[in-house]
Amino acid sequence: MELRTLFRFGGQAMAVTGIVKSLRQARAEDDKLKMIDAIVHGLAIATALALIVREIKQQREGSG
Questions:
Q1: How far apart are the first and last CA of the chain?
Q2: Gyration radius from the chain CA atoms
Q3: pLDDT class for 46, splitting at 50, 70, 90?
Q4: Residue at 17 is within a domain
Q5: How many domains does the chain have?
Q6: Where in the sequence is the domain holding 7, given as residue range(s)?
Q7: CA 58 to CA 61: how far, in whole Å?
Q8: How far is CA 27 from the centre of its chain?
């Protein structure tokens, strides 16, 4: 696995902690707009992680 891929994966994984914090804050403030914003950002992170996982699988298939 490439180092670049590991950094991308790690960065996205760390971003999840920020999303969790945002969701908790939005819930505590009962702010629906902030909640929607946090959910949309969470979906973007999930999509990025899925793309990274797919890239890792393709690399393994290509080298195996």
A1: 12
A2: 15
A3: very high
A4: yes
A5: 1
A6: 3-59
A7: 5
A8: 20
